[in-house]
Specification:
The complex is a heterodimer of chains A (95) and B (485). Chain A has three helices and two strands. With 95 residues, chain A is mainly alpha-helical. A two-stranded antiparallel ribbon of chain A has the order 1-2. The longest helix of chain A is centred in the first third of the chain and has 15 residues. The mean pLDDT of chain A is 93. With 485 residues, chain B is of the alpha/beta class. The longest helix of chain B has 21 residues. Classes of the chains: A mainly alpha (95), B alpha/beta (485). The interface between A and B is large, with 54 and 73 residues.
Chain lengths: 95, 485
Amino acid sequence: MTLKKQDVENIAHLARLAINQADIPSYVQNLSDILALVEQMGAIDTEGVTPMAHPLDAVQRLRPDIVSESNQRDYFQQIAPQTEAGLYLVPKVIE
Amino acid sequence: MHNKTLVELAKGLESGEFSSEEVTQHYLDRIERSADSLNCYITVTPELAIQQAQAADQRRANGEAGRLTGVPIAHKDIFCTKNIKTSCGSKMLDNFVSPYDASVVVNCKQSQLVTLGKTNMDEFAMGSSNETSYYGSVKNPWNVERVPGGSSGGSAAAVAARLAPAATGTDTGGSIRQPAALCGITGLKPTYGRVSRYGMIAFASSLDQAGPMTRTAEDAALLLNVMSGFDEKDSTSVDSPVPDYTASLHHSIKGLKIGLPKEYFDGGLNQGVASVIDDAIKHYQSMGAELVEISLPNTKTAVSTYYVVAPAECSSNLSRFDGVRFGHRCESPKDLEDFYKRSRGEGFGPEVKRRILIGAYVLSAGYYDAYYLKSQKLRRLISDDFKQAFQDVDVIMGPTSPTTAFKFGERMEDPVSMYLSDAYTIATNLAGLPGISIPAGFVDGLPVGLQIIGNYFKEAQLLNVSHQYQRETDWHRKAPVMDIL
């Protein structure tokens, strides 16, 4: 699989990742190399194999839906870049 | 003092030969004197360490000491430590002071271990050389022109250089075992689910597992006792009792069946490394073990399978770093999209970006079956290979890494060549099995690690098999010579 410049730009957009234009050629090269490595998977026939979701075939443990934590909003927001009145601030989304 | 193992430190503390404060101060002095020229630590916590040491000494005076009360250790900077910077080796978290402790850290605190600081690592644990750290590379104490391995390279180098008697590490594709091998120490990756992942910054959640990095197998057993256990805060934590891992260390290994997978001794293996591993295996034979040739036919596809599973999970896990609630935030964004993209683009380094991009690609619409589903099927086949093998043998042995420590820059331009550093360690993560690397000799002055893989929850057996070898050899006692200290 060889990626094109446009592919890398598209994935970067999906991943919400800014990439410098100057770095794109090296990403195109590296990502194509990695995908070539990944494509070695195709050499193995996996017809009828059950996909493995967990090494011990364990299932998700459930717990009762009850409150287990106390409110520590102020403490947690001490490390936030920008807050106001207990809310996290981001650029305006709706005009 | 700094050449003492955890066992010897514990003994000295118990007999009153020295106090925890003395041991801790000794290590802090050493770290300071080294001016961290190996770059092992991202953060050193001297005040906290002394405070914890004094508290440990008080506990001992009150007759409330446990086995490791007052012994200092270092934590990989991937473990959240309350009110202490937790960077995960990334610019993204350079300003992150964790509001809580990881369960591993809580367990260590409950056993009254002292925290010396947080060790350097590849950014978000993505790397095999420590060169992707935002804080610069760690140097290998055996040769400062070479890498310490990764991603737990800071922990491995600190233990090898006697800048910590032991450290915690994490292993997603070899990140405990490979640096342990390259730095000449003992490193154990437990069975998936044995040690809690809560508060351990996630890379690939179905593969990540924490474990001890120490000088000896006996020390690893002691530290694993502290780290292990069921944790309701980790949804994949395994609820089964934790044995005392030191209890079976002295068992004889006569009649032990050792499987030697032919795929682990293939063309990619350096000849010097091969001959060291061969000697180690012959030594086991002389101790009464039986050698059995086996095959793990899907070994070759493990690396390609891993580079779908791990990036896919990484792209999902790392989507939480968005600049909103904590971590790096870009300056004057023009809108929300620009805000996300630039915060993430500036906060992550090139290797992390590559993995996020690969992950986003393989998970994008139309590609799921060809990549992710295919990789999960291969994971089953790789895991079945081991299941089959363990019907005939007790443990599997081979090299931990195909080469000894390589030079800085050697593999940075070509990510795929770096990924192949983990060719022998990755399959155990995909299968969720435990594995250990122990020092087995040297090639041109650089350490070689012997890897031993066990069946699920057979950590005690791996430690027993390692300890028996360490009783008869002294590779694990060798220390690098360093002018700086």
